[in-house]
Design goal:
There is one protein chain. It is built from 9 helices and 7 strands; from the N terminus they run βββααβαβαααβαβαα. Helix content is about 40%, strand content about 15%. Helix 1 crosses helix 3. It is an alpha/beta fold and about 260 residues long. It has one domain: Alpha/Beta hydrolase fold, catalytic domain (Rossmann fold), CATH 3.40.50.1820. It is globular, with a radius of gyration of 18 Å. It has a 7-stranded mixed beta sheet, with helices on both faces. One of its GO terms (biological process) is lipid biosynthetic process. InterPro entries: AB_hydrolase_fold, TEII, Thioesterase. It comes from Shewanella denitrificans (strain OS217 / ATCC BAA-1090 / DSM 15013).
Length: about 260
Amino acid sequence: MVKAKIFTIPKPRIAPKLRVFCFPFAGGSFTTYIPWVHCLNDDVELVLITLPGRASRVSELSHDQMASIISELLEQKSIFADVPYIFFGHSLGSRIAFELAVNLQYLGITSPQYFIASGSRAPHLASRRESIHHLPKSEFIQKLGELNGTPKEVLSNSELIDFFIPALRADFKVAHDYRAKKIPIESPILVLGGKDDIDVTHLELLAWRELSQRETKITLIPGGHFFINEHKSVVIEQVDFVVNLVLTCNEMKHVDEIF
């Protein structure tokens, strides 16, 4: 059983046939993905990445560099070797997942059977957005409100926002500073983009094609940058399709091996 604090498993499975690892966007947490557990196949175990500075790890110092995030994840690298798996990340989460996939590939550990990048420019592209993590408190909070990723009840509560600002600043520092090397991963990639997303252009979505040794498919979903919340049922449908595709392919391979 997985017990590392960086992983939250809402509904552990005794012998899962597939794991879906979900990576949070900047300023977000694993709570975005909890409803998914009721929508996926019973053979699938949902594993939610829980970074320090939020949820059960709220008292811990947040990572403000991609390298330290990946280092903590790699301390638990055995979880990526025992059961087939898929990566899903939204925005910054996609880029964390990509950097982890590259590192696992370098270590000779089996790659994700599918990689789903949601609401994110390809990670080898530089950010077009100005850095906000260093802004004075009032300006920083204003920018967070414009981005629509932080709940309004948090932004409007002075005690709550003071509590979460260190983690938010750390997230946005990573989001701005990190830029991947253009190393194609072994996984096929499904790229999800918002039709009305003004933060990520279509060309930035297409650039994910440079990062896979296999097929890359681009799918547009109604909504802006946070379509993952606005149209979560559509996102879950896309994820469920990939999950069932992978499970079917794995089952067919198993049958082929028997015969």
